[in-house]
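**Paired protein data**
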Amino acid sequence: MSQTRKHQYPFVPYAPPRLPLDEGLRRGAEFHRHLDRRRSVRWFSPDPVPVEAIELAVRAANTAPSGAHQQPWTFVATQDVVVKHQIRFAAEQEERKFYREREIPEWRAALAHLETDEHKEFLEVAPWLVVVFAQKHRLRENGQQQKTYYASESVGIACGLFIAALHSMGLATLTHTPNPMAFLNRVLHRPANERPYILFPVGYPADDCEVPDLTRKPLSEALVFVGD
């Protein structure tokens, strides 16, 4: 393929195969059925998960688009029992304040049907904990700070791909966000320019795992067409 445009920076051709319409729709429908079976899990099996599964999920997350292609994410994974205990201890301290001390009745009411509380034993039961950090800025080679653009949006997209990749391997996770999460920088020795974004326990669902009986928003509420 010959280059038809002039560029100041390197560009390469992009020509993915164009699928027949029926095949594309079939793949789209199967992808939806696959993801529609995914659920967030709070009861995990302690059965080991190979490190290759974590690497593959992060490889998938790393394909996410990002503002100015700055890829402002860092995935920090641990299966160390001591580190996992430290994370659980600190997370439960924050969660205890939320459930017992803070006056936020509307938020508590919104969570009631999930039957969650300050006890987060899954942080030690799940074989892996993966914490995603958003880079607020990066350091140039000369030591100066470089702002990252659309960091939250970019990291959010990467996390979505990470979740989908785990599900494709038969693994489960939970988007856990104890607030505040600054303790994760200390426990995981991350620099100040990184902000904890989501804490993912990763593993297989427990044999007796249960999930809330929920229904997803119908397409008629999620999609709006405008114009002809």
